[in-house]
Amino acid sequence: MTLPKAPNPAHRGAHASLAASFRGISRRNCLFPAPLGLLLLFIQKPSWAGGQIEEPLIDSVRSALSAAIANHAPPVPEFADTESRLKYLRWMGTMIFRLRRSKPDFDTRREFLQTVWYESRRAGLDVSLVLGLIQVESAFRKFAVSPVGARGYMQVMPFWTRVIGDGDASKLFHMQTNLRFGCVILRHYLDRERGDLFLALGRYNGSRGKAAYPNAVFTAQRNWLFSGA
To answer: Which burial class, exposed, middle or buried, applies to 174 when counting CB atoms under 10 A from its CB (0-12, 13-18, 19+)?
Structure first.
């Protein structure tokens, strides 16, 4: 891959932000979705598919992303206190019910939600946002493939496995691998856009600056908001 001749300051900022983000977790509280949003969840079909564009990465950013992908710890949630664990269990109970039509098998739903929660928090992303993105990108289909070749739940482009992985694009159909790549990539784009979620989502979809895709994800996100009460 051809690299830039000199480090880009924006990339340096992205690297620092990426490292900080992976040390922390998001603690935002949200509201329950409106019934109309739940209805749309069950009748809506995906209108977009991931089309991330391959761009040059300086060595420090590539190394940070590769390290984030390479950690294969199982997605087992850990909690600082009992209240945090109880909140997670309430969230899980609510989401298992909401996802039942997309994933009828209970154990499959539970494993999927646990992994989404783990990978989202690990990357410092809002879990409801990641679920909304998955709804738009693949409608929760593990083996979804877009016309441009994006794969899996989060419609990750195969070139990412060459740039920051081991080059085996078939692994993007593995649940945790796909969610790990998707969350790391979205975190990277969010850092590059200095926290601007609208632009980061556009970059994730390959339509930076256009409103259609970010708005679709924000609308879908409402189906997965949770108050924590």
So the answer is: middle
Tens digits of residue pLDDT in 125-157: 999 999 999 999 999 999 999 999 999 999 999
| 187 token code pair | 């975190």
Q: Is the pLDDT of residue 13 over 90?
A: no
Sign of the alpha-carbon torsion through 217, 153, 89, 39: positive
Question: Exposed, middle or buried by CB within 10 Å (0-12, 13-18, 19+), for 39?
Answer: exposed
Q: Does 155 map to a domain?
A: yes
Which structure tokens are listed for 1? 């891959």
- Domain around 180: 9-17+28-71+84-224
Structural domains of the chain, count: 1
The model's pTM:
0.77
Specify the CATH number for the domain of residue 161. Answer: 1.10.530
